[in-house]
Write a structure and sequence with these properties.
By secondary structure, the protein is mainly alpha-helical. It contains twelve helices and no strands. α4 runs antiparallel to α5 and α5 runs antiparallel to α7.
Amino acid sequence: MKERIQFLFLYYIFWFTYFTCAKLIFLGYHISEAKHLTLELIYGVLKNSVVMDLSMAAYLSVIPFLLVTFSHYFKKSKLESLLYSYTFFLTVIITFITVIDLEVYNVWKFRLDATPLNYLSSPKEAFASAKSSPLLQLFISFLILLAIASYFVYRIISHNLNKWKFTKKIPFIPVALVLTLLLTIPMRGSFSQQSLKPGQLYFSDNYFVNISTLNTPWYFGYSLLKQFDSKINPYSFFPRNIINQNLEKLYPATDKSFKPLIQVNKQTNVLMIVVESLTD
């Protein structure tokens, strides 16, 4: 049981370490701005980003945790194949997102979110925006990062699975299930009811410092979900027919046209009240 639990922690730490290295690569890629940061600010970036990196690592670790939990029902070779295929697939996707994010900031001055997906309907504009980027340099960077990450993935999975010894289903399965459930804590970012949001990581009045704290895959997924949520009116609490009935009572239909603002001879003053929304 000890070897399996050690593997779970090692797998989780692998993803956390990956995201920490990705943050350092982001700072190195944008050295023209990062060189002006003090050691205190760089430390602040790494410190404040821990919560989001642990959150993303937890999301990626759920399936491997469940596979290991019920590893008694798999042959070791089958389990190793499943774990490696799943992790390698995620490594490809996340490394791709990480590399694209490096150049997105150069072009648009913000971290990669769901905005580029709007260009899928107009590929010509997408190509025009991308052709000025150092595609060869980015592709080589992608291959190097993927090769390094894949090497550690292979070492972690194959090297550790070979050390596993026989263990009884009880108490291992209950213990592993508890560890899997505990992943929900870093997923949410805290013990409170409020889930993790990007704005919680910001700590400086320097824009570059604040966005450097973000975990790119987490932020991309967050913005993607927000894009879908934006299609639903969060302030609509009643069915549409009930809303229409209430509006008809308040504003009965008449033959006269309704003028919300009556223009008089003298100049009319219009008062506008703007309420700032809460930060993300």
